[in-house]
From TrEMBL:
Family annotation (NCBIfam families): trpS
Reactions that this protein is recorded to catalyse: tRNA(Trp) + L-tryptophan + ATP = L-tryptophyl-tRNA(Trp) + AMP + diphosphate + H(+)
Any GO molecular function: tryptophan-tRNA ligase activity
Keyword Nucleotide-binding: yes
GO biological process, one term: tryptophanyl-tRNA aminoacylation
Pfam name, any one: tRNA-synt_1b
Keywords: Aminoacyl-tRNA synthetase, ATP-binding, Ligase, Nucleotide-binding, Protein biosynthesis
Name used for this protein in its record: Tryptophan--tRNA ligase
Signal peptide: none
Gene3D superfamilies per record: HUPs (3.40.50.620), Tyrosyl-Transfer RNA Synthetase (1.10.240.10)
Source species of the chain: Candidatus Blackburnbacteria bacterium RIFCSPLOWO2_01_FULL_40_20
PANTHER family on file: TRYPTOPHAN--TRNA LIGASE, MITOCHONDRIAL (PTHR43766)
Record-linked CDD domains: TrpRS_core (cd00806)
Keyword Cytoplasm: no
Length: 353
């Protein structure tokens, strides 16, 4: 990105209520991201009560994608377009899209926090433990990512005070990281002096969306995702491939709607709630076929995605670089006083050089 452009900060106002949350930039976003995160981010943005920092975690993406760095540049653009298309709006004065790698103050904070982060505590982190199972050759960067993520959060810590708040909307799997971040911040405050406002987790109530194969998680790598940028035909095709109730080999056999991906999606995305209720009743009675239920789902999903697609078209020639420069600048401005104070308290500022 560099600093070639003149950056015009949107507003000088200092907010005491801030939101920071992020996503790793490893590819296009899908319906699972929408249900688990983006829907809630947009709602918080629209309250106008918080200064929102939405982080594109391109450094954290390297914890698993160091062999494919070329993927990152492309993914950053895709994620920005996906965010814009669901209505996150960096034109608003209180909304910033931040590119993690371009905030040097954050890297510094990460190193300094790592000095008081307990290795054993990291090893006990259940999310990290689960992820380690699929990491043949975990790097030091990977093992340290909970600390690095704490730096993401605390880089925008507002001044401590009764009005201050640092809110982190995340999926349930991220809770251990936030607990860890909080214990780190508390330890710092106690050891050196009050700098950080403990963060508050806002865990989405909708939880995780199953894949079209019914696997617990929708994910690009499992090839079971419907992307926010998929066209109508692709969505229809994915719905055709979708798993239903495996025990129901004929349409006149009463079917299960509870753990059935097709009905899970109907409940999550179909705006016509009466239709979902009716279809459910018929399905459980063995009076409607999978084909019919799927046809209605494909339509419902496409109706849901249409406004997202339209917004995406409007943004096609948007200045992604400009958006990121402004947002990243805002994060740097927020982080500078924090890291300065941390340096001071850790006896690392040397006035007079
Ligand atoms: N670990 C998060 C994920 O994989 C992404 C992330 C990076 C994040 N930094 C963050 C989330 C800070 C919340 C706060 O989804």
């Amino acid at each position: 990105m560099g600093c070639r452009h003149q950056i015009t900060p949107k507003e000088q106002k200092v907010y005491l209520k801030r939101v920071l949350t992020g996503m790793r930039t490893t590819g296009s976003l899908h319906l699972g991201h929408y249900v688990g995160a983006l829907k809630q981010w947009k709602e918080i943005q629209d309250t106008g009560e918080y200064e929102c920092f939405f982080l594109l975690a391109d450094v954290q993406a390297l914890t698993t994608h160091a062999d494919h760095p070329e993927l990152l540049t492309k993914s950053v653009r895709e994620v920005v377009l996906d965010w814009l298309s669901v209505g996150l709006d960096p034109n608003l004065p209180h909304v910033h899209f931040v590119l993690q790698s371009q905030v040097p103050e954050r890297h510094e904070l990460s190193v300094l926090l790592s000095m008081i982060a307990r290795y054993k505590e990291v090893l006990r982190n259940p999310t990290l433990k689960t992820e380690l199972r699929t990491q043949q050759d975990a790097t030091v960067g990977f093992m340290a990512y909970p600390v690095d993520q704490a730096a993401d959060i605390y880089m925008v810590s507002p001044q401590p005070g009764s009005e201050s708040e640092l809110l982190v909307p995340v999926g349930r799997d991220q809770s251990p990281h936030l607990e860890f971040a909080n214990s780190l911040a508390r330890r710092f405050n106690k050891k050196y002096g009050l700098v950080f406002v403990p963060c508050t987790a806002l865990v989405g109530k909708l939880g995780r969306l199953v894949g079209i194969d019914g696997m617990t998680k929708m994910s690009k790598s499992l090839n079971n995702a419907i992307n926010l940028s998929d066209d109508r035909k692709t969505v229809e095709e994915s719905v055709r491939r979708m798993f239903t109730d495996p025990k129901r080999v004929r349409a006149d056999i009463p079917g299960d709607t509870r753990n059935n991906p097709v009905f899970i999606y109907h409940r999550a995305f179909n705006a016509d709630k009466a239709q979902v209720r009716d279809l459910g009743r018929l399905y459980r009675a063995g009076r409607v076929g999978d084909v019919e239920v799927k046809r209605k789902l494909a339509k419902a999903l496409n109706d849901f995605l249409d406004p997202i697609r339209q917004r995406r078209l409007q943004y096609e020639s948007v200045d992604v670089r400009g958006i990121l420069e402004e947002g990243t600048w805002a994060a740097r401005k927020a982080c500078q006083p924090v890291v300065e104070r941390v340096r001071e308290l850790m006896h690392l500022s040397y006035p007079g050089g």
